[in-house]
Amino acid sequence: MATSLADIRARLQQQETRSSGSSSGGGDNAIFAHWNIKEGETATIRFLPDGDTKNDFFWVERAMIRLPFQGIKGQADSKPVQVQVPCVEMWGESCPILAEVRTWFKDKSLEDMGRKYWKKRSYLFQGFVKENPMQEDTTPENPIRRFVISPQIFNLIKSALLDPDMVELPTDYTQGLDFRVVKTTKGGYSDYSTSNWARRESALTSTETAAIEQYGLFNLADFLPKRPDETALKVMKEMFEASVDGQPYDAEKWGSYYRPAGVQIANAQPRESAPATQPAPAPAPTVEATPEPVAVEVPTEATAPVEDAKPSSQRAEDILAMIRNRQK
Fold it and tell me: Hey, how many other C-beta atoms are within 10 angstroms of the C-beta on 62?
């Protein structure tokens, strides 16, 4: 674990250099749904270190791929569903889905499809809710909450950490900083660009330090989805191809591995080697009146646009043909 702000800055700089030089399931209510605050409201939170002392940062990164399906196979009245699968780039492996999607950005007419299937990042933190403008139905006994932070807010956090004007670690128990999540709207979507750190350092209260002593800190990596094994990776690739091809979700084939959130699959038993079907909850935009957009990282190797754009149905057929040809 990084023991100083200088250590974190060094790690962040290393990440920036690498990226620029190369083309939980939790059944509890510990997640603080800051995206549910109203426009113009502010939630003040205080981040804490990761319980895993091997983690250089006080957060972990989560990367998921969303696979949309027209419905569920065998259900005539089924509505469109979406299945989230983990992108194995979280563990430094090559993702079989992104390996295909990266090539789409070389064709201007496929860029929208590429963004649709590109990984969505979020960041898992923990800490205290110092000021909560919402009336929550229930709050957990343990006041240490988890926060699923969007790329927009994360970039504000990271920029401040790299700012030489920040002297102490914001997670320091005696000289740390609170963070204010401010919700506005821009272009009809939720916007958090005015969120900011407090100007003055402050110490944790005696109640907060007592809570840390009583409950301990979460190991944040415990709330990431389970790492897929070889069989699960094949299932993910098959689901991806079926999604692109416009096929319905096949519960009989995939229900024991991944399934849509909230959908009960008859006779589907989780397999020991399969990833958890319900990863750590993300700030799903469906709960908001104005959905929060998800920032999508796209590869930089996109080439010049193609002159004749094809209809989406034809593009999907072309993509599937390309995938199948590569597998032969």
Answer: 25
Structure tokens at 270: 């989780």
**Segment 96-119, tens digit of pLDDT:** 999 999 999 999 999 999 999 999
- Look up the pTM and report it: 0.73
CA distance 238 to 183: 39
Question: For the chain, which domains are there?
Answer: 5-327 (3.90.198.10)
Kindly tell me if the per-residue pLDDT of 203 is higher than 80: yes
Closest CA to 275 of 5, 24, 74: 24
How far is residue 24 CA from its own chain's centroid? 12
**Other Cβ atoms closer than 10 A to 298:** 15
pLDDT at 292: 44
Reduced to 3 states, what is the DSSP secondary structure of residue 90?
helix
Per-residue pLDDT of 21-55, as tens digits, reads: 433 334 468 999 999 999 999 999 999 999 999 99
Dig out the tokens for 320 from the structure. Answer: 């599937």
The Cα 2–Cα 11 span in angstroms is: 9
Residue 86's nearest CA partner among 226, 249, 252 is 226
Give dist(CA 242, CA 49) in Å, integer.
41
